[in-house]
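User: Teach me something about this protein's shape.
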Amino acid sequence: MRRNVLACLTIGLIALSIGGQAKANPIVGTQGVVNIGSTTTDTGNVNTATTFALSFLLTTSSQTGDFATYVTSPENLGVATLDVNTPATFTFGNAAFGTFVGTAITRLMSDSQNESFNVKGNFTPGTLFPAGSQAFGAEFNITFSQVGGPNTAITAAGTLVTAVPEPASVALVLCGGAGLALAGLRRSRRAMA
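Assistant: First, the predicted structure itself:
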């Protein structure tokens, strides 16, 4: 019995060390983004629009974590189009900063002058970040404001928030699998005896 416990612990430690070595460098933090160009919609009204076109996205100095360490703002992120019915079409970035690609959209707030959305997706770090940085889940919260009412100027500002990955969960799954394998091996040996 003691041998089985020691074997299970050894396998668990090996799995944990493998999980630690396979861990990618996560990019953790927030990055402010603003559209300094024109923002247009398909209807001219932020409250009824389903498509928002952003003509000139820039990073701002509102940043935390790895973004504050590696990104010198302003960084030109190009153009983007947010279609609330097709989240995968929302993508922005460049080779240096990296790229965000949307996968799901949720409307957060709507009032007479503002529309806010949360876009879940993936952020793939660019060359500004350390080698070995990999894509992780992220969210982009964006607010469109139209103070003058329909058919007037629209401003857009948002924040990219990278999620903290959990590579240790892979090691836990491997430990559990090793424990189940040992238990099955033990049962089969007892059945044969």
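Now, about its shape. The helical segments are 2-22, 65-70, 168-192. Residues 1-23+167-193 form one domain. If you'd like, I can walk through any region in more detail.
User: That's plenty for now, thanks!
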